[in-house]
Amino acid sequence: MIFFPSFCVVKLNILALFAMLLLSIGVNGSIRMDNGWTPSHCAAESGRIHILRALHNANIRLDEKDDSGDTPLDIAKMYAHNECVKFLQSVLGEYKGTREASAPSSSTKSSAKGTKKTKANSIETPS
Fold first, then answer.
1. In the beta sheet, which residues pair with residue 125?
2. Residue 110 pairs with which residues in a beta bridge?
3. Cβ neighbours, 10 Å, residue 85
């Protein structure tokens, strides 16, 4: 019976469930330590993919830099946690796709003549 709690933590992902519970009641998943590390940096260091997923599911950014300029992805690479690296790379791809989708297109920028293009290959209308 002494080993049962450890077995539960490993096999049932109690830590991830606990993290999701804490995040659901409003615990700050973006809090920083003195060196700028966030919970995602700590999870990446120890290879806790389930914690990274819980943070991501709670809409916590996983691309924050610490005081040395390292992201959780950099930390996961340093410690060769390949599953975490793959997950973080996919998340960063989602972030990049979101930014590109929300960025204004060049077809809506004003030209030097004070006119505005409403669509690519369309007639310019006065501003």
1. 116
2. 116
3. 20
